Amino acid sequence: MRVNALNELPSRSKAFDNKCGSLKCNGAVNHRLNDQTRLRPVCRRIEAMKIRAEAPDTVPVFNAGSSAKTVQRRAGRTAHLAVGIRSSLATVSLMRTAIYPGSFDPITNGHLDVIQRAAKLFDHVIVAIATNDSKTPLFSLNERRKLVTRAVKHLPNVEADAFTGLLVKYVEGRSGDAIIRGLRALSDFEFEFQLALMNRKLNERVETIFMMPRDTYTFISSRIVKEIARLDGDVTAFVPEHVQTALIRKFAKSSR
Among candidates 36, 178, 71, which has minimal Cα distance to 121? Predict the structure, then answer.
């Protein structure tokens, strides 16, 4: 004969609460009573069964001859598993990933400002460094990735990655929810708007979000920074310190 282990919960719980009430005085257990030790395992069994009662969809059914320890062990194990699964599903469902693509040749303070803003809005931000065959980059793909990684090391939810091919396929492969694009001026909008519409046509699930950097960075671009550095100008205000050092070394080698 099989019975539901929770059928006796209300009466057993009430009896247990009454019993424990007689053992307590101002929050302290009265140690003069001899049945204190005997009630401890009962307390653990009832608490475990109460936990299982909160999840009736997964209530286990035990044989009538099952021991109290078996009931406690099985109920506790199932309850902990259910709580763990629900917690994991909640974490996954709230996770939002944004992809910030670009050549980043090199990364500038304007790029970094957009990354920092995106990191506040999303759980995970991927700075995706593209291999652009239409351009001749100053830094190799590996060098650009190292520069970006060092620039975002203070942001725990940001990582640097490299990709080739279609952007929407990369976003889908990384389970991205949105593409981040920076707008420096009105002249950028027409081109970015066309890209956003094309990406939406290719994958309607992926959204494009335009973000503006701080006004002090709106005039900065990688092309202008490289030109200034090539002419031995000071780019301290435009790029992180390690990027400035890399630019100086790169143009020092090319001038030899």
Answer: 178
